[in-house]
Write a structure and sequence with these properties.
mainly alpha; 5 helices; membrane; transmembrane; Maternal effect embryo arrest protein; transmembrane helix
């Protein structure tokens, strides 16, 4: 009876294998980073499509230079500026995510060697993932602004009293993106800081 309880004590005092929980956690981090990089790649493609469409923008409603529905002369510049800033944010997010994936892969490779166990720095991973998510959200906001400016170029200025088409396109887009970005950031904050 005594030896049985002592054996149970010895079993309980043995260190648990870090491989299973750490490997699962590393796999989850890598798959989250992969998903973020994939989203950034899709949005980066959208940026270049937007740049292609903004170069030959023809207004579909404005009739003359004095028409109040004509967008300002800087609207085309704003499209390009927002597209470039969106691409920069997506690129920064993807590069940080790729760096984190590299670190996680190296940590995983070191765990194969028994005497070279390196614990994952949770704080560094969380901060890096929060930065990638923040950059993706900022890129999405700039991309949305560029699309709204492109809508103004094609359908007329949003400030025009008769620009129902512009408002019908821009307002649902802005609302959908705001809801999407806020839910994305709340999910990220819950996942990595809860």
């Amino acid at each position: 009876m005594t030896s049985g309880s002592g054996g149970e004590k010895n079993m309980a005092s043995l260190p648990k294998s870090p491989d299973s929980s750490d490997a699962a956690e590393t796999t989850l981090h890598i798959s989250a980073l992969d998903a973020l990089v994939n989203v950034n790649s899709i949005f980066s493609g959208v940026v270049f499509i937007g740049l292609a469409f903004s170069s030959n923008s023809i207004s579909l409603v404005a009739s003359g230079a004095d028409d109040p529905c004509n967008p300002s002369s800087n609207t085309a510049r704003r499209v390009v500026l927002c597209e470039v800033l969106a691409f920069a944010a997506y690129l920064l997010s993807s590069l940080i995510a790729q760096g984190l994936k590299l670190q996680l892969a190296l940590i995983g490779a070191k765990k194969v060697v028994p005497n070279a166990l390196v614990p994952i720095n949770e704080r560094f991973i969380r901060i890096g993932m929060a930065i990638t998510a923040f950059c993706t959200a900022i890129g999405t906001i700039f991309l949305t602004l560029s699309i709204i400016f492109l809508i103004e170029l094609r359908l007329g200025a949003l400030s025009c009293p008769t620009s129902a088409w512009s408002k019908s396109a821009a307002i649902p887009l802005a609302v959908a993106v705001i809801i999407g970005v806020l839910s994305f950031l709340c999910t990220v904050l819950y996942a990595f800081f809860a």
